[in-house]
Design brief:
CATH architecture: Beta Barrel
Strand content: over 45%
Number of helices: 2
Oligomer: single chain
Shape: globular
CATH superfamily: Porin
Order of helices and strands: HEEEEEEHEEEEEEEEEEEEEE
Structural class: mainly beta
Number of strands: 20
Strand order of the largest sheet: 2-3-4-5-6-7-8-12-13-14-15-16-17-18-19-20
Radius of gyration: 21 Å
CATH class: Mainly Beta
Length: 364
């Protein structure tokens, strides 16, 4: 008995369409009855003028179990090495999916938030066309530019729907989760500073009795274009009096020989100003735009697996800056790629960082 896909149809089609057609097939997984093992592995070499040369290796198995046609269980672990060479294991997500009908799926547990398009659909290393994250995201990043958020996973309930509307598909996600918590104290005296820091680590637990909620609505103009809007809000301090809110607009366009994607994100963190005991909204925003082009368009056989990638990220408010990343990908298999990239970061205060990356990423 085969598994129903746990990703939206448009997400899967866009990923497959982005791989050079000379390698277009379904890939492979270990399928043993109702149990399936999938996942990814990557090894990244990083050279920077601000840090020691580093080699990072990660192994991220995904375990899926089909209890019945209606109930599926999904979990991913990430196993890697810290800076001291110690093995670190973290549960990225673990949730139960209940397929209510052909349109609606209810998920409960720890899951990747459907916020923006990058987190759920693109952030796995073998899907991401560059060995780094966009500047607005900070998942596993050591870049000197302070990101807006990380790729977030949290515990709660999510309801996903897929509807046929006209000639396209409408996707909706609505969730209620534990929510953020304060990384630093919510009081501050610097009204011009970045404001309090907010954490999303589930392992720390919720620090107040209020839940966060949000969702994403997207429409796919089949077969090439998808646009979406996401919203998230929740109280983050101990007494639940200060809120954290973010919004995201995303777009993904797939052409015969490339694709173009981008996101614009805003965050608002409420902080208590000690001088007059007032609440101030600390706002940051940013965006990224990424384009790829497949050299197979030239009709030269040995260039068919080659893909060129260019991405620019910018954070415009408070501790802002720019990141420009250029890369070349060589696809060994539909889910195996070697990436070479150069990245330049320049902060608004004039600080800079230049990096070189080599990464091999495998999806299985």
């Amino acid at each position: 008995m085969k598994f129903k896909t746990l990703r939206s149809g448009i997400a899967s089609s866009l990923i497959i369409a982005a791989v050079p057609s000379s390698f277009a097939n379904d890939g492979s997984s270990l399928d043993i009855g109702r149990f399936l093992i999938s996942g990814a592995m990557d090894a990244t070499y990083i050279s920077s003028n601000r840090m020691n040369t580093n080699l990072v290796t990660r192994f991220s198995p995904i375990f899926l179990f089909q209890m019945s046609e209606k109930i599926h269980v999904e979990s991913q672990l990430e196993i890697g090495l810290d800076q001291n060479g110690n093995t670190v294991t973290e549960m990225e997500y673990a949730d139960i999916h209940y397929f209510l009908n052909n349109n609606t799926t209810i998920s409960i547990g720890k899951f990747l938030l459907p916020f923006g398009a990058f987190s759920q659909n693109v952030h796995p290393s073998w899907v991401n066309k560059l060995p780094t994250m966009p500047g607005i995201y900070g998942h596993g990043s050591t870049n000197i530019l302070r990101p807006l958020i990380s790729v977030i996973a949290d515990t709660g309930v999510n309801v996903s729907n897929v509807f046929t509307v006209g000639t396209g598909k409408l996707f909706t996600d609505f969730y209620v989760i534990s929510g953020p918590r304060e990384e630093t104290v919510g009081s501050t005296t610097d009204i011009n500073g970045p404001g309090p820091e907010v954490a999303f680590e589930v392992k720390k637990g919720d620090n107040n009795g209020k839940s966060a909620y949000g969702g994403r609505i997207a429409y796919a103009f089949l077969p090439a274009l998808e646009v979406g809007y996401s919203y998230y809000t929740g109280a983050y301090n101990a007494d639940g009096s200060l809120n954290y809110t973010m919004t995201n607009f995303d777009v993904n366009w797939v052409a015969p020989y490339g694709d173009l994607r981008g996101e614009y994100m805003t965050t608002t963190t409420q902080g208590l100003i000690e001088a007059d005991n007032s609440i101030h909204n600390f706002k940051r925003d940013g965006w990224y735009l990424q384009g790829t082009w497949q050299a197979r368009q030239l009709g030269i056989d040995w260039l068919n697996p080659v893909e060129f990638v260019l991405r620019h990220s910018k954070i415009t408010k408070i501790e802002g800056g720019d990141i420009t990343t250029a890369g070349i990908d060589y696809w060994l298999e539909p889910s195996a790629v070697i990436k070479f990239a150069v990245e330049k970061t320049k902060l608004d205060n004039g600080d800079t960082d230049n990096r070189l990356f080599t990464q091999i990423a495998l999806g299985f």
